[in-house]
């Protein structure tokens, strides 16, 4: 059997319009640790995955990023704790799937740069 070329996703880039504002949101509101930053980029850690906030070098890269699904232990508690902060929720936490005794819950939100992401949790029903 041939060895896979790709070992893992090592980093996800998130385009931003205002690096200071975005860094404050991801670091302070979401609580992600800052690894390091420059005047055009900031690198944060989410588990074993690195997020790169960056000012786009060209207009063709200045678009919203893919949806990131951040795993949390308790989605309702996360939603309540972050409601009213610098986070714009799109709806409320809701169950999206149930497999045997496990329920998958999600709630979507916008960051300060217009990117849509989600919190998700898997709970025993």
From TrEMBL:
<dbReference type="InterPro" id="IPR004360">
    <property type="entry name" value="Glyas_Fos-R_dOase_dom"/>
</dbReference>
<dbReference type="InterPro" id="IPR029068">
    <property type="entry name" value="Glyas_Bleomycin-R_OHBP_Dase"/>
</dbReference>
<keyword id="KW-0223">Dioxygenase</keyword>
<dbReference type="InterPro" id="IPR052164">
    <property type="entry name" value="Anthracycline_SecMetBiosynth"/>
</dbReference>
<dbReference type="GO" id="GO:0051213">
    <property type="term" value="F:dioxygenase activity"/>
</dbReference>
<dbReference type="GO" id="GO:0046872">
    <property type="term" value="F:metal ion binding"/>
</dbReference>
<dbReference type="InterPro" id="IPR037523">
    <property type="entry name" value="VOC_core"/>
</dbReference>
<keyword id="KW-0479">Metal-binding</keyword>
<feature type="domain" description="VOC">
    <location>
        <begin position="8"/>
        <end position="122"/>
    </location>
</feature>
<dbReference type="Pfam" id="PF00903">
    <property type="entry name" value="Glyoxalase"/>
</dbReference>
<dbReference type="GO" id="GO:0004462">
    <property type="term" value="F:lactoylglutathione lyase activity"/>
</dbReference>
<dbReference type="InterPro" id="IPR018146">
    <property type="entry name" value="Glyoxalase_1_CS"/>
</dbReference>
<protein>
    <submittedName>
        <fullName>Glyoxalase/Bleomycin resistance protein/Dioxygenase superfamily protein</fullName>
    </submittedName>
</protein>
<keyword id="KW-0560">Oxidoreductase</keyword>
